[in-house]
Amino acid sequence: MGKSFPVLKCFATSSGQVKAWCPFCKKWHTHGFPDKITKAGKIGHWAAHCHDKSSPFHKTGGYELTLMSKKEIIDITKSLDRYKG
Fold first, then answer.
1. Nearest to 11 by CA among 61, 37, 3, 25
2. Is 12 within 8 Å of 67 (Cβ atoms)?
3. Count of H-run helices and E-run strands, the chain
4. Which pairing describes strands 63-67 and 7-12: parallel, antiparallel, or unpaired?
5. CA–CA separation, 14 vs 27, rounded Å?
6. pLDDT 10s digits, 5-58
7. What DSSP string describes 42-82?
8. What is residue 9's predicted lDDT score, i.e. its pLDDT?
9. What is the pLDDT of residues 52-79, one digit of tens each?
10. φ, ψ for residue 56 (rounded to 5)?
11. Which long-range contacts does 22-25 make (Cβ < 8 Å, 24+ apart)?
């Protein structure tokens, strides 16, 4: 059985990349868009780009990226719209 990695949700950009928010270094991690995505939206394993050396992603050997669903993106957008003043 393969190693299990922490999962980060990500979204695709118009420039052909994926972005995921890192809860440890509080920055966007950007990766190239993969050639293959599973039906569940799993993109695969990626090395961590954390600037925070204490990030647990360095100890786990990275993370698994999974695309957000359309519903998740809509929910996040609605949530962010509430903060607009």
1. 37
2. yes
3. 2, 5
4. parallel
5. 19
6. 899 999 888 888 889 988 888 888 898 877 666 556 777 788 887 888 888 888
7. EEEEE----S-TT-HHHHHT-EEEEEPPHHHHHHHHHHHHT
8. 92
9. 888 888 888 899 999 998 898 888 888 8
10. -65, -15
11. 22/48, 22/49, 22/50, 22/55, 22/57, 24/50, 24/52, 24/54, 24/55, 24/56, 24/57, 25/50, 25/51, 25/52, 25/55
Q: What is the pTM of this model?
A: 0.72
- Rounded to whole angstroms, how far apart are CA atoms 83 and 60? 34
Reduced to 3 states (helix: H, G, I; strand: E, B; else coil), residue 2 is coil
SS3 content of the chain, % helix, strand, coil (to 5): 20, 30, 50
